[in-house]
Amino acid sequence: MLRVDNIGLRYGSGPEVLKHVTFHMKAGDFMFLTGPSGAGKSSLLRLLFLAQRPSKGTIKLFGTNVEHLDRSELPRVRRRIGLVFQDFRLLDHLSVFDNVALPLRVAGERLSSYRQNVLDLIDWVGLAPKAEVFPDTLSGGEKQRAAIARAVIAKPDLLLADEPTGNVDPVLARRLLHLFAALNQQGTTVLIASHDESLMQAMQKPILRLQDGVLRR
Questions:
Q1: Residue 21 maps to a domain
Q2: 117 is in which domain, residue-wise?
Q3: Per-residue pLDDT reduced to its tens digit, 154-197
Q4: 3-state secondary structure of 174
């Protein structure tokens, strides 16, 4: 599913943000990525989503070396990845419903085929009363829940989440992690960046630890 071999990353002429990072995930794995602020967690997720190329080393996604992918092939690969951004990245001109449904719409599915599934997921994350409102009326926690629903609605092969529970209360945080676990049980490979040690320990999943750009086990 995912293989990272000896990658490094630096921005311009600055210092290395990631150094000699190596790990792999099999299809169906569920792992956490943790480390202090500035350790390189978000940078690593950007590499895995193909938003950035490593300065050195190789990344294989779905059995393909991403260095060999033509630019025109990137959207096809990205559609197999669900991504929860730390800053939500909801589209302000779309309602909550339309934001969550966007991956299905982009994939060419008909509204009649996904409408109820989208409404059910919006209800599950506690946003049923807000389905038709726009993101600028939502709190930070509500935006996070909408972003998570959008990331998982298409049941991606790989889910990458950057601090997905950082803006919600502890009860909802556990509920959302159980949503990720349920998706994982259906076959999705999951990698979650988090600093919440209690949540990670409660899930009892393998943990990758980054410190100063170095992966420590």
A1: no
A2: 91-151
A3: 889 999 999 888 777 888 888 888 888 888 998 999 999 998 88
A4: helix
pTM for the structure as a whole: 0.88
Residue 105 falls inside a structural domain: yes
Q: How far is CA 59 from the centre of its chain?
A: 17
pLDDT tens per residue, range 96-119: 999 999 999 988 899 999 999 999
Closest-CA residue to 147 (of 89, 103, 107): 89
Distance in angstroms (rounded) separating the CA atoms of residues 69 and 84: 23
Tokens read off for 134: 């726009």
Interatomic CA distance for residues 129 and 107, integer angstroms: 26
Strand order in the sheet with 207-211: 81-84, 158-162, 189-193, 30-34, 207-211, 214-216
Q: Considering the chain, what is the average pLDDT of its residues?
A: 90
Q: Are 60 and 3 in contact (CB under 8 A)?
A: yes
Tell me how crowded residue 110 is: count the other CB atoms within 10 A of its CB: 9
Structural domain contains residue 144: yes
Number of domains in the chain: 1
Q: Rounded to an integer, what distance in angstroms lies between the CA atom of residue 213 and that of residue 58?
A: 16
Contact 95, 138 (CB under 8 A): no
Q: What is the pLDDT of residues 14-58, one digit of tens each?
A: 888 999 999 999 999 999 999 988 888 989 999 999 888 899 999
Burial of 55 (0-12, 13-18, 19+ CB in 10 A): middle
Interatomic CA distance for residues 53 and 10, integer angstroms: 10
Residue 195 domain-assigned (yes or no): no
